[in-house]
């Protein structure tokens, strides 16, 4: 009795159902008879019951709003969608001077760039600015909206590169090396209009990285605008450039420029919509096939 109980318990049946069947059939009943009786009673193994239960998880469309607290959109790998985006490292001096027309260090330009990447969902954003930019502005180095630097520093977005004064002279560390080094270690994107040629010659690994991960930009009426094709017309799109897992475009068949006048037949590498359900033969092969048919008919008539 105990061995049969253990056997059917391993199959997933409940002990109460097994006891009822054994009382009805007797302890000497065969295992096949007990199994048939369990099936007739409608008893199911627990594994099947759990599979039959409807899933309580709800799928939420990406970008849609949900009133249910605690539910977030998860990607295919079970992580947040922001994890598929590359880290962003911004050359703060380059962006600020570009927004100020190379005359004023405009901190508002840095804020515009940071807001643009935040709206796309990037969570890792770092801006590098020399420490001496915290000093009061002077005539030879004017600064606009300097309070923005303090706000970004509180948000752990802005990082000051070291600088100090030695005998009245300012000693400034090379902030470009910080920018390239952090972006290279994080496998991110450098936002700057500088080409960093000196750093490319310094390190061959940095040379490849700067060539492939440099995102240039423009300011159009206080609007931060990176190009849609950061690496040229034949390169990746901006969304693929900023994501860790780029989405490859679907291959579209290029239609034949000659259309129905094409004489290449099955040797033509282009797409012919009118030949979908036809055997793609060359014109010479079609003529040979047509000439063979009447010859065969004439021989049949002579016979």
- CATH-derived topology of the domain at 88-226: Rossmann fold
Task: Identify the CATH architecture of the domain at 88-226.
Answer: 3-Layer(aba) Sandwich
Radius of gyration, in angstroms, nearest whole number: 36 Å
Please count the helical segments. 12
CATH class of the domain at 88-226: Alpha Beta
Distance between the termini: 88 Å
- Principal-axes geometry comes out as flat
Strand order of the largest sheet: 5-3-1-8-9
**Largest sheet, if any?**
5 strands, parallel
Residue windows where pLDDT falls under 50 for at least 5 positions: 47-80
What is the mean predicted local confidence, pLDDT? 77
Name the beta content range: 5-15%
Structural class, judged by helices and strands? alpha/beta
Q: Estimate the helix proportion, in percent.
A: 25-40%
SSE topology string? HHHHEHEHEEHEEEHEHHEEEHH
The number of E-state strands comes to 11
